[in-house]
Amino acid sequence: MIHSKIKEVTDRIIERSKASRDSYLENTRINFDKVRGRNHLSCGNLAHAFAGCAPSDKSTIAEGIEPNIGIVTAYNDMLSAHKPYETYPNEIRKYANNFNATVQVAGGTPAMCDGVTQGQPGMDLSLLSRDVIALSSAIALSHDMFDGVMNMGICDKIVPGLLIGNLSFGHLHSLFVPAGPMPTGISNEEKARIRQEFAEGKIGRKELLKGESDSYHSPGTCTFYGTANSNQMLMEIMGLQLPGSSFVNPDTDMRRAMNKEAVRILIQNIRNKDYASTIGQIVDEKCIVNGIIGLLATGGSTNHTLHIVAMAKAAGIIINWDDFSDLSEAIPSIARVYPNGAADINHFHASGGMAFVIKTLLDGNLLHEDVNTIVGTGLYKYTLEPKLKDGTIHYEDGPTASLNESIIRSAQDPFQKTGGLRVLKGNLGVSVIKTSSVAEEHRIVEAEAIVFDDQDDLITAFQAGDLDRDFIAVIPFQGPKQKGMPELHKLTPSLSILQKKGYKVALVTDGRMSGASGKVPAAIHLNPEAAQGGVIGLIRTGDRLILDAEKGTLNCLEENLEARPARHVEYNDLSHGRQLFRNLRALISSSEEGAGII
Questions:
Q1: pTM for this prediction
Q2: For the chain, which domains are there?
Q3: 549, CA 20 to 30 Å: which among 87, 242, 288, 510?
């Protein structure tokens, strides 16, 4: 029987979402029941659609009997994680042909790399790109040529955007095809040491670049547990990609076999006309709750307090941060992957990975087992582990115990009894904090505020030696309507150094921190944002603040804050294409509502 707190949260989500979910499902059912295939398209429509195909594919597509799969790809070779997708369309086309089906690349989407734009003006477009990706996905699928969808995307805003776009075609069979993480480079501790030494001026850019290149060294996802790898965890625990497929390295026999198996499963679901395995049926209230639980249990990316809200909304499901907070009380923290620990995602996979995480949560009645997935009903299938036999995937029982308890523990013997994310409430508004990587002695900070209108101002003050004291850095006017809500990960080395020196430091912002938020307590996504009259915009340097991640509170101790005159900070967007996104910023919802326009 499912844990009582999980049942309580799930039941209230179902009740809260009843009208919007019923409307979504009604539309999905109508579209599913329409004549399948391409018979409704005119000869001119079809001729345009398959003009570039091989002759054998042309005849198959024209007959409209066998499945035609549309690939939506976020490939570019600037993202290491997406480089492997360069060869996937031809590879998958061959697999589909072996199953008497066809494949076409339906369209591409943008794919920003937050690692490239961190601390740069382009980061202001990062969160906004999620909805652009969703819209691009819908355009790709609007040709009405496809019976199923294979989504190729891994990184930060890309998977959420692809899923939102796919959910607007909820009657289709869709799945996600990961490409896997790069092999392990230098240790995460060594990488952090190099960054801190550069921040302190002990080494130069040449040494820093070598350290970064030794970390990010080949095709594949970055190996820390940020948003990209949190995406892969989510797609697996939500039943939207193959069991055991998230963290298999690129260009291996296992990865190629997983791709072939994904094609086989998708074609099978299409031929079976299995409504339960359409994406709109898989992504239901229990599926969304399972995703939140996976995030909490593994200490995943804070960005998903935005993305899961937006993804759920696309399926007619309404969730809020109270749902995260209440679930966090019941969900133990069972993983330690950098920045929550020293291990990387390859070590996590080798220690039992997703199969063990799902098994121990199911054993503890901490996940909904009775859900639809791309491989059928029942999440227990995701406790199985893929094995390669004669080039074909076979599933066997997965691990029943952790293979390294410093990386993964059972739900009965967790690293901590509550989840790795907390919601903070108080007179400044509502925010979120990632606690899984923050040591207990750093989770309560009471200190004077130092207000910075830009992250570079903090770094300048640090380099001048002006921050050698206890303080809470307040960086307002970074919210979705003001700037598009950029990440402020550039601040991590400086704040970490001050913390190591023994100072009590914390960060409060209406912007975002990286999905790999570090050891410094950071109250982020603060809502309401400064540009909308939020109290954070009224804080002055010297005000006394208290951040208490144990109690879940964030307060300014000064009186009559709201009597202070409103402050406005000009935002110059006249570079890097940011001016083209002004209308999106005007329409975007609050952070607690998912910070989206859809």
A1: 0.95
A2: 4-34+66-183+218-397 (no CATH), 421-593 (3.50.30.80)
A3: 288
